[in-house]
Design a protein that fits this description.
Blueprint: E1 2-6, H1 10-21, E2 25-30, H2 33-40, E3 45-48, H3 54-62, E4 66-69, H4 73-85, E5 89-92, H5 104-109, E6 113-115, H6 124-135, E7 139-150, H7 165-171, E8 176-180, E9 183-187, E10 194-198, E11 202-208, H8 215-218, E12 223-230, H9 234-243, E13 252-254, E14 257-259, H10 261-273, E15 281-293, E16 296-307, H11 316-333, E17 341-343, H12 345-350, H13 352-364, E18 369-375
Parallel strand pairs: 1-2, 1-4, 2-3, 4-5, 5-6, 6-17, 7-12
Antiparallel strand pairs: 7-15, 8-9, 10-11, 11-12, 13-14, 15-16, 16-18
Helix pairs in contact: 1-11, 7-10, 11-13
Length: about 375
């Protein structure tokens, strides 16, 4: 099976190296010559091209048996739609702003498997919640806390971006959808700030972001909330930018040139937020679920923390985001995922055999996921 991977950023490169190591025939497309050269050194085939160009995009999709998309979110829906039209199955970690379920009918008609949002959160988070929901329809709620933070804290943002700063800023501007006591609710991003203590790390702040995505449509859990974790003070620093217009998306005229504020801000922040090679950082995922069964309160907690792999030069965010995509691609290639249509992680998690196979591969990845259950 020939796997064509679109995008050679940190996550894409991690996926490519892992699949190559596992013996897969993988071909990587990206515009960055330096990123592709690094992959070529270990024998991975590559092609330099601009995938924003529709002809290049279609050709890259046609040439593969399975597509893995790690391009920025603004390209996600376009890539997904093109893969479905070309009748190519796809594993997607672009985290597009559009609703991928809109393409479900077409994907089924074309006999395509399209696994979307298969990163860490959304991704692993939704996979686990989907499994718990399938096992217990009486779940009352689920909260997801996720974030990547550097070891070294530097004001004012105390943050380093493991991928495109523009994607991070987009997350901070996207209206938040969540469910509370059965009601679908909308809120401003960066709102409802709370402090949360993480053992071994200390106090972090958590604020609303729009990471629930398909989970709002595929489950009926009464309360669903997703929050991003950062060091205290980060949220207020971003709010200053936002309230001053630096995250605006409408073009403005400056000395005869058209400038989009959020893109300009992304360029300014890049040198401040750029995660240098072997710079230490960590990724945290905490999932809290609760229910009431037979008169008893039941709480389920999942916890994962990963730090930079200095020996391999792999960031924690690349590994935690890329590993679920690697596992999904390998299971598909082995014929262990026989679903068709748009398949978000929570649907994968419902299938007992897929869940068992996925978790078996996950345990071998080196990532450690802890689960705790409390009943009172």
């Amino acid at each position: 099976m020939k796997i064509n991977l679109l995008g050679a950023g940190r996550v894409g490169s991690f996926i490519a190296k892992q699949l190559h190591k596992d013996g897969f025939d993988i071909f990587v497309y990206d515009i960055s010559e330096s990123s592709l050269e690094e992959l070529e050194k270990i024998g991975i085939k590559t092609k330099k091209c601009n995938l924003i160009d529709e002809k290049n995009l279609i050709n890259s999709i046609k040439a593969g048996d399975l597509i893995i998309n790690t391009l920025p979110g603004f390209m996600g829906f376009k890539v997904l739609k093109a893969a479905i039209e070309e009748k190519k199955s796809i594993v997607d970690v672009s985290f597009m702003p559009e609703n991928p379920l809109e393409l479900n009918k077409k994907a089924k008609e074309n006999n395509v498997l399209a696994v979307v949002d298969i990163g860490i959160a959304p991704g692993l988070s939704h996979f686990l919640i989907g499994r718990e929901y399938f096992l217990n329809k009486n779940l009352l709620g689920a909260k997801i806390y996720v974030g990547g933070i550097p070891f070294e804290r530097n004001l004012p943002f105390q943050y380093k971006a493991p991928f495109s700063p523009l994607d991070v800023l987009e997350e901070y501007t996207r209206e938040v959808r969540y469910r509370f006591n059965g009601l679908l609710t909308e809120a401003e991003p960066l709102s409802d700030i709370e402090e949360i203590n993480i053992f071994g790390i200390g106090t972090l702040e958590a604020f609303l972001t729009d990471g629930l995505r398909t989970l709002l449509f595929t489950t009926e859990i009464p309360t669903l909330i997703e929050k991003t974790l950062r060091y205290p003070g980060h949220c207020n620093a971003i709010k200053i930018l936002k309230n001053s217009g630096f995250l605006g998306k409408e073009p403005i005229d400056y000395k005869g040139s058209s400038v989009i504020p959020i893109e300009f801000t992304s360029k300014l922040l890049f040198p401040l937020w750029e995660l240098k090679k072997n710079e230490r950082e960590m990724t945290i995922l905490y999932i809290y679920l609760w229910s009431k069964e037979n008169g008893k309160n039941k709480e389920i907690n999942y916890f994962l923390i990963e730090t930079t792999d200095l020996e391999r030069g792999v960031s924690s965010m690349a590994k935690t985001t890329g590993t679920p995509a690697v596992i999904t691609a390998e299971l598909f290639s082995e014929g262990k995922i026989n679903l068709k249509g748009i398949i978000p992680p929570e649907i994968l998690g419902k299938d007992e055999k897929i869940f068992e196979n996925f978790m078996e591969y996950f345990e071998k990845s080196g990532l450690k996921l802890n689960k705790y259950i409390n009943e009172t």
